[in-house]
Amino acid sequence: MKKASSLSELGFANDVHHALFRPIQEAAPPSPTKRHTKISVVGAGNVGMAIAQTILTQHLADELALVDAKPDMLRGEMLDLQHAAAFLPHTKILASTDYSVTAGSDICIITAGARQLPGETRLSLLQRNLALFKQIVPPVAKHSPGALLVVVSNPVDVLTYIAWKLSGFPPNRVIGSGTNLDSSRFKFLLAEHLEVNAQDVQAYMVGEHGDSSVALWSSISVGGVPILSQLTKDKAAMEQGVLERIRKAVVESAYEVIRLKGYTSWAIGYSVASLARSLLRDQHRIHPVSLLAKGFYGIPEDHEVFLSLPAQLGRSGVLSVANIQLSEEEAARLRRSADTLWELQRQLEI
Amino acid sequence: MKKVSSLSELGFADDIHRTLFRPIQQAAPPSPTQRRTKISVIGAGNVGMAIAQTILTQDLTDELALVDAKPDKLQGEMLDLQHAAAFLPRTRILASPDYAVTANSDVCIITAGARQIPGETRLNLLQRNLALFKEIVPPLARYSPGTLLLVVSNPVDVLTYIAWKLSGFPPNRVIGSGTNLDSSRFRFLLADHLEVNAQDVQAYMVGEHGDSSVALWSSMSVGGVPILSQLTNDKAVMEQGVLEKIRKAVVESAYEVIRLKGYTSWAIGYSAANLSRSLLRDQHRIHPVSLLAKGFYGIPDDREVFLSLPAQLGRSGVLSVANIHLSEEEAARLRRSANALWELQQKLDL
């Protein structure tokens, strides 16, 4: 194993390991079955590092590789994680500006891209990130031809479509973090108000990760009990405008964090680590993530558009898309979300 | 429980909880035995937030309070953590510039302070941080008179002494993160070179968290086996200069990370969370932390100086100091470290 430390350069005796430890006689070489899991994170900014650190703390992978264009910052981040070795299970941590460091990854997480400026919509970021993806995705795909790609950079839906096109991968292996986090924020607001644990709240936001997202009110449940009728009992107080204001509050909450602290990091870190766990450990759990949505929920077969739908995730990526009963209103909003994204994609030059 | 969300303001019906859930009849009120644990983190900068996030991920506490002078940044950080509710065990997260939010904490972690500038020694930071501690420590002590204080701000040894004086607490309840992280970095370098898991390496750095730290070479072991003789077998290679170069590399590694990424965060986050766990969960584990060292290892009884020694930590703080056999050289270095800190403390205006 390549020695990462500089102790040899400092004069420390080599081969001390052999003086301290001896293998048993006639030991066989390791089984060729690959059990060593590797996750690569492209982009060592606030989002990438929050994801990397959460993956490390939750011990999701045996090997973690970081890639960024800024070599000093990248090396500093790598060392900062490595220095925690005494407090963590043993994870090999690598970093390089060269994509070959990502070779053999099970999952590649792409966070690189311009940060959303206060007031800037996610869709405005698109042009800035398209050129970057043309540099990132082909080498990532080349070095890990069997990997699962998870796109986090915004605007995530269109960038996931771009990543899919540039990678040449089958669509089940390319997903975007999508509305996984929006749904968490939605659950948080509901759970606080209902005085329950957020993990007992089943509530999806789907469609675009952004302004035209769709809150699936008709399928919200708490502890397995559908609650929309309870919520809307008082018709005098609960006109349709209230539900829409809540949806907007969820969308707005991301912008609020950006306005207050300059960016978001922790929540998206947990969100993506949660996806990584479901994928890597073949959990078959349902997450709303951005995927190739053509043919689902009335989205036309020729609209190769990526948007978030509740999907079952496992080791081979998207296993299936859940078939949830939508209200008329929800189905219409979802199709409008799809149309918005489709129009935008058509203006792209890939 | 106070509703933190704005759903009521948006027109969401109140008291929904009661229509969804009903308590069993004649239920008794909760037992008065306090089992809810609370940790407060003072300073929501890179270090404070890395500590807070790691504590959250590791599910160490029921309640987490954040304090900072910058209200917007603080609010943003709190929201960013709360938005991860769907992915985390339920921890109540509070934030305020007012120290009342820290009331009844089991552990208070102080990270506030000026950041170490590249090239600046830890000792140069002292004047800048002393004035700040005069604002921080008294209210903390008042709101949580029984708490354990964990100081992380640098220079940690003198600032822990200052926190002790300003709090009026008994010395077993005031510790500094000290060389807990230096020891991790030390173990990382050794483990990587020896090709073992860092958690199998027993290796302490003690004394000042900084330039005059002491590496306890004579008590180093791997898997319980003392290894100094193995390392020093090759006398031609292992002249005394090499061991000192390695110690300096450990001290330097912090400055290196600061130079590369601007600050350190992840490793200190894990280190402080690790200490919090041992304290809160009464683990009786040994950690090198900054504590009142007078009377130990030949340090005079009238020297009220704080520096790192291997100590057993538990729910009441420092339970005891380990009695490790030091070489002549190590004992002399430790006393020199104590003198350097004592001289510095003498110049303070408390």
Could you write a compact summary of the structure shown?
The structure is a homodimer of 350-residue chains. The first copy, chain A, has helices spanning 16-20, 46-57, 71-82, 126-143, 156-167, 180-194, 228-231, 240-261, 266-280, 328-346, and strands at 38-42, 63-67, 92-96, 107-110, 148-151, 174-176, 201-202, 205-206, 214-215, 221-222, 225-226, 285-292, 306-314, 317-321.
Structural class of the secondary elements of chain A?
alpha/beta
Oligomer: homodimer
Report low-confidence residues of chain A grouped into runs of 5 or more: none
Helix content of chain A: 25-40%
General shape of chain A = globular
What is the average of the pLDDT values of chain A? 88
Greatest interface and its participating residue counts: A-B, 88 and 87 residues
Distance between the termini of chain A: 41 Å
* Rounded radius of gyration of chain A (Å): 22 Å
Could you explain how this protein is built, in words?
The first copy, chain A, has 10 helices and 14 strands. Chain A has a 6-stranded parallel beta sheet with strand order 3-2-1-4-5-6, with helices on both faces. The first copy, chain A, has a 3-stranded antiparallel beta sheet with strand order 7-10-11. The longest helix of chain A is centred in the C-terminal third of the chain and has 22 residues, at 240-261. Chain A has helices spanning 16-20, 46-57, 71-82, 126-143, 156-167, 180-194, 228-231, 240-261, 266-280, 328-346; strands spanning 38-42, 63-67, 92-96, 107-110, 148-151, 174-176, 201-202, 205-206, 214-215, 221-222, 225-226, 285-292, 306-314, 317-321. In chain A, α4 (126-143) packs parallel to α5 (156-167). The model of chain A has no long low-confidence stretch (mean pLDDT 88). Chain A is of the alpha/beta class. In chain A, α5 (156-167) links the parallel β5 (148-151) and β6 (174-176). At the A-B interface, α1, α2, α3, α6 and α8 of A face α1, α2, α3, α6 and α8 of B.
